[in-house]
Amino acid sequence: MPKTSIYASSNTRAEARASSRRQHQRVHRDGGPSQSYRDSETHFTDTAASQYLDHAELDPETRLSKIAMLGTHDAGTYMFSRARAGRAVSLGSLVPGAFKCQSLDLVEQAKMGVRYFDIRVVQDGNGIYRFFHGPSKAAGDALSETIKLLNHASADKKNFYICKFHFEKEDAISFLEKVIENVGSSLIKNTGGLLGDVTIGNSIVEGRNIAAVVHKADTAVHNPSISQFVWNYKDNISTKWGNVCDGNELGQHIRNFYTQNAEGAGGKISVTQTNMPFFSTKKISLPRSVKKLAQRGHEAVANVIEDLAAGSVNPGVISIDYAGKSHISSTRRYSEMIKNINSLLKRRVVTQL
Predict the structure, then answer these.
(1) Cα-flanking dihedrals φ and ψ of residue 58, to 5°?
(2) Residues 6 or more apart from 257 whose CB is under 8 A from it?
(3) Secondary structure (3-state) at 214
(4) CA distance 63 to 314
(5) How far apart, in whole angstroms, are the C-alpha atoms of residue 338 and residue 344?
(6) Residue 193 contacts by C-beta under 8 Å, 6 or more apart in sequence?
(7) Which residues of the chain have pLDDT under 70?
(8) Where are the beta strands (DSSP E) in 80-205?
(9) E strand or H helix at 181, and its extent?
(10) pLDDT tens across 37-54, in order?
(11) What is the CATH number of the domain that holds 146?
(12) Which of 26, 56, 163, 173 could be stapled to 158 by a disulfide with Cβ–Cβ 3.0 to 4.6 Å?
């Protein structure tokens, strides 16, 4: 059976890319349907979540691995903002350019259409959970912030939400207990098999729309009352980070990844990582802030992903830095791609004569 492009069959790839870019540029000029947010750094306007198709609109047999989504890399690093921290309480808030990957909080990210969240948590000496990135812990209460997101997700029964948790040491149990206590009835139960094979019909339709994916869950979680709600990251996610500081090189890495995995992820959920590191040993260069790297390279990366999508590759979760800022992250452009991909999965309405 021939593969289907996300674009109309009459378009060539070049026409599709040009059309999407014209639309992208036009929306920036006229504003389009939008939603405004203000953070500590700048005022900006970008795509609202209403620009997406709700997952409940898709065919009930649609598997989670077939749905395109927007994701955020290091979703909790907005807490490294000095305005949020109140003062430089850590290396990350002292030098935020090296650690901060997001400006919007978790709920604001969700309101912008993000459905996959990379959440990294460590417990400090006082028993308070902190978001972390590399060697630095952020200010604030990561558990409280995460519960706000989960309550938002639980109320939005029309969409899947995937929280990928990365815990340090033995910090998972009490955190996950609080997650289950607050939104256990909305969590997708792990009954065996792959998370990517879960369908809309046996999750969203049944009121369960949140997946808790845990890094090294096989060693971090042993309690059956918790493990029934947990999915092991390595077993359920297909991804490979580029670890390069150049947009063109990252784009080529992404292209190579999908060329080498032409048969798909085998039921796993694909995550396309578009983030670039503050510094990489792969190619020695002057360190630049995460924001500046994203601003310089995001269009080159988006060009490649758009080209792959036009050729029938589903990028799955497109994980970005600085969600909500199209001049840094191509948020609006990825939103259009995701809507195009998912529109092919819409529920078919049969009319009776």
Answers:
(1) -85, 165
(2) 240
(3) strand
(4) 13
(5) 10
(6) none
(7) 1-50, 85-98, 262-264, 279-287, 349-353
(8) 114-123, 129-133, 136-137, 161-167
(9) helix 172-183
(10) 333 343 344 545 557 899
(11) 3.20.20.190
(12) 56
Q: Is 5 domain-assigned?
A: no
The total of structural domains in the chain comes to 1
- HEC letters along 290-332: HHHHHHHHHHHHHHHHHHHHHCCCCCCEEEECCCCCHHHHCHH
Q: Is residue 352 part of a domain?
A: no
- Is 140 domain-assigned? yes
The boundaries of the domain holding residue 290 are 13-343
- SS3 state at 111: helix
Q: How far apart are CA 270 and CA 264, in angstroms?
A: 8
CA–chain centroid gap for 114, Å, is 6
Q: Specify the pLDDT at position 13.
A: 45
> What tokens appear for 197 in the block?
């094979």
- Decide: 224 and 190 in contact? Cβ < 8 Å: no
Instruction: Tell me phi and psi for residue 63, to 5 degrees.
Output: -85, 150
Could you report the per-residue pLDDT of 94-127, keeping only the tens digit for each? 666 667 999 999 999 999 999 999 999 999 999 9
114 beta partners: 70
Contact 254, 242 (CB under 8 A): yes
For residue 343, CA distances in Å to 54, 159, 247, 330 come to 10, 14, 28, 20
Q: What is the rounded CA–CA span in Å between residue 253 and residue 203?
A: 34
Separation in Å, CA 197 to CA 161, 218, 316: 15, 20, 13
Collapsing DSSP states into helix, strand and coil, what is residue 97? Answer: helix
Flag whether 3 is in a domain: no
